[in-house]
Amino acid sequence: MPANLPQQYLKAEERYRHARTPEEKMACLEEMWALLPKHKGTDKLQAKLKKMMSRLRIGAGEKKGGARKDLFWVPKEGAGQVALVGPPNAGKSKLISTLTKAESEVATYPFTTRKPIPGMLHYKDIQIQLLDIPAVSIHFQEYWIPQLIRNADALLVMIDMASEDPLGQMEELLEELKGMRVKPVKERDIESDQPAEVCKATLIAGNKIDVAGADENYKTIEELYGTEYNMMPVSCETSFNLDALSNSLFRILDIIRVYTKPAGKKMDLGPPYTIRSGATILDMAEQIHKDFVAKMKYARVWGSAQFDGQQVQRDYVLSDGDIIEIHL
User: Fold this and answer.
1) By residue range, what is the domain housing residue 297?
2) Distance of alpha carbon 24 from alpha carbon 10, whole angstroms
3) For 135-179, what is each residue's pLDDT tens digit?
4) Do 279 and 243 lie in a common domain?
């Protein structure tokens, strides 16, 4: 059976021949893999590409100067890190480009994203880090993807509601996450009863809801999974529900914003601290400065207290938007 390689593949192959760095070569190989027709006529070529990519990955993981250089690790920034997980062409790159202005390549062919791309979502007066990662698929998956997903604070799973089989996408994605020992759940503090399995607070976004027929597809999946997972229809193309999506991401991160005020001075609030829901005055004091824990006498709270400036003790539980004044 002839390979019938498309012109886009041949152009990527030409770029590979002229690539100099391991990163450039890997990017070309991954593009070639995404564009390669998958049938019996390309079996040998598929095996060859896999072997070439494997060799490059081993090279990237070698120790240099006594330290392992990880090219695909993304340190957490902002109030929390949310990993975007989805099948090919679900719209992850479009979403992160729309919400964060990060330069994530958007294209019609699958596996466009070849490396993790972080972007900062401005939500009210804080920032949430969104992390676009390559597509999760049974056909091809980067070796470093599971660790990035397991490390994230929460997951945003995107399903293409305009595809031929969105329910199949959903089921396949859940199976792939299970293979990574990752369990999507509604709330952040749920613990798994399975060895080595981590639970991740997850929002499932049914994208391309603006396309004809997508609404019915979403309703079908919602009937099957709506009680088990946080779900929401969105459109990256028309921006439908994107504000609500930002609100939901803040909620599943299970954090609150707390502002500080110098004792005896007028209100002049800067950026807030972010801390887990259920945190107390003592937790907040420790986050501001470790010495505050021993030196703090009491605090005053504006916001959730019965009256503004109410004096509270160390075990007072804070709420989102509270303003605190610590007295040492």
Assistant:
1) 255-327
2) 16
3) 887 766 677 888 889 889 999 999 999 999 999 999 999 999 998
4) no
